[in-house]
Amino acid sequence: MAAFLFVALMFAAPQLAFADEDFEDETPTAEEVEVPVESSEETDCANSWRFTNGEPTQESSLYRTTRASRAPSSKGSLGKLIDVSKWDGKINWEKVRKSGIRYAIIRCGYGENKTSQDDKQFRNNVRNARAAGVKIGVYIYSYAYNTKKAQSEAEHVLRLLKSEGLTPSKLALPVYYDLEEQAGTSKPCVKSDGKKYKVSNAMLGKMATTFAKTITKAGYKVGVYANKNWWNNFLTDKAFSNKSWSKWVAQYSTSCTYKGSYDIWQYSSTGHVSGISTYVDMNYLYRNFDTKIATASIGMTGITCPYQVVRGTNDLSLGGKLTSPVTLKTVTVRILEGDSDAGAVKKSVTLYPGATTFDLASAGKLVEDLSFDGLPLGTYTYQVRAGVEDGQTTVFSKSFKVVEPRSDGKTFLLATSSNVESAYLDYTRPTFGTSGLTLSTGLTKGGTLPLKGGKVTSSVALTRVQATLTNLTTGKQVAQWSGKASAKSLALPAACISKLSTKSLPMGKYRLVVTASSSSATGTALSKTFTIGTAAPGVGKAKAAKKKFTAKWKKSSGATGYQVRYSRYKSMKSDYFKTTKSTSKTIKVKKKKTRYYYQVRSYKVIKGAKCYGSWSSVKSVKVK
Questions:
Q1: pLDDT at residue 191, rounded to an integer
Q2: The Cα angle at residue 478 between residues 477 and 482, in degrees rounded to 5
């Protein structure tokens, strides 16, 4: 038995420019044969895979199978969505919203631009859904069989949108075109004006393009609605491969097997939703059509995590600030079992900022609500999640341990192991870094590391800083310095700079590693790889030509080859590189009559590695 699966296509990407040509309505082809019917009266009597003479086919075998199946998976969705029409009667949208439904697509009408073909519940549904806080889109059921009819249906939609003041910014979901009319046949066949018209696949593409062109010109996102059978067999015209048309795939099953991409999946027509007395179409939404929200990136600064917590402690500083380009709807702070986000939730507090910034330190009794002092010994994860819509993303996640204090009150041991190493208590997980260090990727043999003015920094008080220099060509450590510290930063002393001198080192590849320690942790503050090579060559004046220039330089003794670096900026940002073994290089550029900056350095190949020296001074040339 045939179980047609229906797919709704919504155009949700930024509007696409359609071809300027209009499609002519010509004499019906062999696929557009007029078949007389008994009545020419226009009524809302859809004949599709879901309806017969306007009545839902609720007693079909498909209906019975769907009711008996297990619940479909909602994995990856933004939430449930319903689509409604006059067939769903008068809806209590407050109850719908309280039941968890956040999105709805509302039918505005059917067929041509006639008042008699407006959906009788459109205005009530639009006004009450929006008042209840349900985000909406609209659709029209098509009876078109040529582009003239499709144009009229697009104007029908625009008239009703205007009548309700629904500007593009007030629709959270697109307008879409419902192409499923079958008039009792297995192929597209439209009953209109007292006749039946078989519609070719090519005409379906022309109709959809005409509809889309009119709707997008008015500033709205747009879409097409059809079942899976139609998408696979009838909506095959190249117009439907338009990437700006976002598909809504509806398949009455526990999973969607449509092979193409889609943003909405309709999985049932027999859903039950509080506030609606009839069965209702149920969908999952996978895409946010508000580009500001869809691309919103939530930032965080200053959020701290307890590094270790002595059992019974609740006096913790868990500050930090969240920022977002759009309103933050929710912030959830949780404690999970184990050292990953996959652990079971032990504690959870949800906050509702209602602003674009949120300070966790101002969240009242956040620490008390999380109840760190009630946690047993073990490992946990402190997690902060935030959302600008119904879903949330993790913006901070760090693990910590609840430990048992020792009798001396200064150190602790994990109660689960008698052999674990003790450490001084520090409530904050430290972060280490450096400032003022401008170490280049290449140095001249006989030079020295530019470490003067450099600092090692930490989020907590330092106890020790160590620096090591390793020759990666030989694998041997060539220098090391270590010193004590007692503040949150340490300026590298003269002794460190002298100890790490590279003046006597041979050409090759090296790594400088700076590690920092606090009372409770050790971490890497800097890890930098560099090479020691031949001296920078002397660079002469470049020869300019049309959209290119030729740089020239003197030969460097012992060099294997040269690297040219060029940019439109003197600071050499947005730079490009070229390599040559010659003492000149012609560089082709994109812009004419533009000044470019360049510099050159040499390299020597040692044990297969290119060991670069220092850069020459920056030169400039204006191309023709």
A1: 76
A2: 85
